[in-house]
Structures are given as structure tokens and as C-alpha cells.
Amino acid sequence: MISIVIPTLNEEKFLPSLLESIKKQTFSDYEIIVADAGSQDKTIEIASQYGCKITKGGLPAKGRNSGAKISKNELILFLDADTIIPEDFLYNALKEFKERKLKIASFCLKPYVDSKLLSLLYNIFYNFPIVFMEKFLPHAAVGIMIEKNLFNQLNGFDETIIIAEDHDLAIRAKKIDKKSYGILKSTKIRVSDRRFRKDGWIKTFLKYLFCELHLVFKGPIRGNFIKYKFNHYNY
Fold first, then answer.
1. What one-character-per-residue DSSP string does 79-91 give?
2. 143-191 per-position pLDDT tens digit
3. What is the largest CA-CA distance in the chain?
4. Which DSSP letter does residue 101 get?
5. H or E stretch including 70?
6. Where are the beta strands (DSSP E) in the chain?
7. Residue 59 half-sphere exposure, CB side, CA atoms within 13 Å?
8. Cβ atoms of 50 and 23 closer than 8 Å
9. Which architecture characterizes domain 2-217 according to CATH?
């Protein structure tokens, strides 16, 4: 069994698509936990309609930690609310995860809508680099699969980190067990480009590049010198 944890804040536009994609999976031995940060729209109502467990969340790290605390299964899958998983995602991901004897894994990404240009951008600036750096610099964003025992051993996500706390989790996991981490190649996650459209492609890319360099040379980003807003998108 697997526990799927989704942090949310005003996600009535995207959450139904994600929950529908989960509902269509051939693998059905799962529970869904929505950790909500105080939505003012229909997010909670939608989650209830789909039979999700609901708990109090906060910023993504806090929401994921809160969801993990009430999860009942030995494996946890963290997903962002603005994603869609393809058919057989859970079956293929779990199969590869077990075959490779991993304890934590993440995924390559593809755009929410079919677009050759966006697919190329995702490949060049995210997918190819994280696969290339898989052995020496772990990355984990948007979707993370992890054994609950390891998650508890790491004390979950570090809630003091402003941004890239997901990459930090993967880095700390690999320090415990060098063979525990991997990028799953058997399936991808579809993700919205709304943050790029809202904040600007160049600005967002430079922000992520800065976070990457800071993480490598100085460690995780704490403090307030990078402003992070959880869901400030209008689309």
C-alpha cells in the first residue's frame, strides 16, 4: 500500500484533475491525504468528495510532514496539487522502485499540456540535468516517493528551509545510504507551468539556478532573503 500526500492552498482548479488521474490508476491500494493550508475556495469540498483524508497543512514542507504523520502505509508518495499522473503511473513507479531496491526516488517532468517547445525546455533545464547528476547530486521535486521508515529517520522535510526543501531531503537521504536514491525512468509526471507564466520564465529560471548554486556551495536557504509564496497563481 502507498499513502499519497498532497499539500494544498486554494487548488480547486487543479486538484480535481490530479485526483481523477489517481482514481484511474490500475494500482488501487492507496490512500490520499490532503494537507490544506487554509483554503478559501472549494479545495476541502473537492478532497472530501474524492474520499481523501484531510489534515491541517501550511507551507509545502509543513503540509507534507503533517500528511506523513497520519499516513498508515510503509511507502509515501508526495505530489504537488498542480500535477497529473499518467495511467499505470503507480504500477510502473512501484515496480521500478522495488526492482532497483530504492528507498527514495523522484521523477522526470513533462508539461501539463502537449507542447514540443515546453517538453524541450523541461528536458534541457530539468530532466537531463537531474538524470546526469543522479549519482552525485540528488534532486527531488514535484513528486517524491520514499519509504516511511527513511522519512522518519530524516525527521521529514526541514520546515526552516525557505525553498528547495525537497532537494535537501534527497541529499540527506543519500548521505545515509548512497544506493537509496534514484530517478525513476519508467514514467513521468505532468506538471503545470503556471509558476513560470505568473512570475516570468527568465526570473523563475534564475531564481531556481540561484537556489541550486546556494544549495551546492553554501547549503539550504534559510531566512527571508528569497521571498516564497505558496500558491499566488490566478490560473
1. E-TTEE--TTHHH
2. 999 999 999 999 999 999 988 999 999 999 999 988 899 999 999 999 9
3. 45
4. T
5. helix 60-70
6. 2-8, 30-36, 53-56, 75-79, 83-84, 104-111, 143-147, 181-191
7. 14
8. yes
9. Alpha-Beta Complex (3.90)
Paired with 107 in beta bridges are: 184
- Distance (Å, whole) CA 181 – CA 184: 10
- Kindly state the cell numbers that stand for 27: 494500482
Number of neighbours of residue 44 by Cβ within 10 angstroms? 18
Dihedral angle sign, alpha carbons of residues 219, 161, 191, 235: negative
pLDDT, tens digit (0-9, with 9 covering 90-100), for 180-195: 999 999 999 999 988 8
With CA atoms as reference, report the closest residue to 96 among 31, 131, 145: 145
Domain residue spans of the chain:
2-217
How many whole angstroms separate alpha carbon 4 and alpha carbon 67? 9
